[in-house]
Design brief:
Elements (H helix, E strand, L loop, with lengths): L1 E5 L3 H12 L3 E5 L3 H10 L1 E6 L2 E6 L2 E3 L2 H5 L4 E3 L7 H8 L8 E4 L5 H11 L7 E5 L4 E5 L4 E7 L3 E6 L4 H11 L3 E3 L3 H5 L4 H11 L1 H6 L12 H21 L9 H5 L9 H7 L12 H4 L1 H16 L4 H14 L20 H10 L4
Parallel strand pairs: 1-2, 1-6, 2-5, 3-10, 6-7, 7-8, 11-12
Antiparallel strand pairs: 3-4, 8-11, 9-10
Helix pairs in contact: 4-5, 8-10, 8-14, 10-14, 14-15
């Protein structure tokens, strides 16, 4: 299948290399020409995984987004939510009818990017989808090398508009056979693990993160008190899903730590053993704060208010993060209020997510 991969982060290089190895034709786009140069010059990404290290040829490497997406059946954007609006602006003139855009994960970006390109005048009939996690536990080792610790085994996925779900799921399944359908884009957004696992880990490890040059929040940072808070936060997420009417499976995060039923199977020990997550985390700039907390956790708290659910842990962590950043995160850009959706009833929301705003 022809797949465009947009971005230059850990997940983007993992996607380009892994999907190329599986036989797909990959066009890798990155805006930063200097950072892309080692891959651009050689058309090669070096992939490290359980099988060793291999040099993977990428069919097309480019700084021209139009070149990358022209004729692509699947447009994959494994970039942080903080990059979505810039990518949407660059992408809008080039989208074509029938294409599927997949955000792993999305932080409700499937709705937000769709509306952004529509406001920019794009009339292409495109399906937008998002899932609960990046399909790879991956870290870049240098400018043209990526290490994949684990691959996802289950990817709960919602589509916007949901009326395009059958087509979108069929296309995505060619690259990711492990996808599982969710009701719609908001259901997919409420599967996002990042806003559940990362805010407690960084807030409750704030002192060592600022004291030590490197700290592994998944190893020594994951102690019983942290796990207890994460579990409470995840229970709030599940209660919100149930209040809206979304059905199980809800992919409880406890499965990540305790069994092989979560999105990566039995992954926590492998993640810790890899050593790749022993890193410097700047609480003011790291994506665990600016994406998973400022965007993702704020979205979750706003959905809780909209759905009439008590969510004291989500709101407490959001308040602590706001204290660190000096901002009121309750009015963030990804909240339902900021998106103009907080006055919809549950049924009105369901119909909008089914049909799309432009229908």
């Amino acid at each position: 299948m022809e797949i465009a991969v947009l971005g230059g982060g850990h997940g983007c290089y993992a996607a380009a290399a892994d999907l190329s190895e599986q036989g797909h034709s990959i066009r890798l786009w990155r805006r930063d020409a200097a950072a892309l140069k080692p891959v651009l010059d050689s058309s090669t990404i070096y992939l490290k995984d359980d099988h060793g290290e291999s040099a993977v040829i990428i069919d097309q490497v480019t700084t021209d987004i139009g070149e990358a997406v022209k004729g692509a059946q699947l447009i994959l954007i494994p970039s942080p939510a903080t990059a979505q609006m810039d990518i949407a602006r660059a992408l809008a003139p080039h989208l074509q009818d029938g294409q599927v855009v997949f955000l792993p994960p999305g932080t409700f970006g499937s709705y937000i990017m769709s509306e952004a390109v529509r406001r920019l005048g794009c009339t292409a009939d495109v399906a937008w989808a998002e899932t609960g996690t990046l399909p790879w536990l991956a870290r870049k080792h240098g400018s043209n090398t990526v290490a994949i610790t684990m691959r996802a085994t289950r990817l709960p996925t919602g589509v916007y508009p949901a009326r395009r779900a059958d087509h979108a799921m069929q296309v995505i399944a060619e690259a990711f056979p492990c996808i599982e359908p969710c009701e719609d884009a908001l259901s997919g957004a409420l599967m996002n693990a990042g806003p559940i696992i990362h805010p407690p880990l960084i807030m409750m490890n704030a002192a060592p993160l600022q004291h030590f040059p490197e700290w592994d929040i998944h190893n020594e940072g994951t102690q019983p008190a942290v796990r207890a808070v994460t579990t409470k936060l995840d229970n709030e997420r599940i209660a919100i899903r149930e209040a809206i009417g979304y059905q199980a499976p809800h992919f409880p995060l406890s499965d990540h730590y305790e069994n092989d039923q979560w999105m990566y199977g039995d992954s926590h020990k492998k993640l810790v053993d890899s050593g790749d997550w022993r890193e410097h985390i700047d609480l003011y700039t790291h994506r665990y704060m600016v994406e998973d907390t400022v965007m993702g956790l704020a979205l979750l708290a706003s959905v809780a208010d909209w759905a009439g659910c008590d969510a004291p842990v989500a709101k407490g962590l959001l308040a602590i993060a706001g204290g660190i950043l000096g901002k009121d995160l309750r009015r963030g850009e990804r909240t339902l209020g900021a998106l103009g959706l907080d006055k919809l009833s549950v049924e009105e929301m369901r119909q909008m997510l089914l049909q799309g705003q432009s229908a």
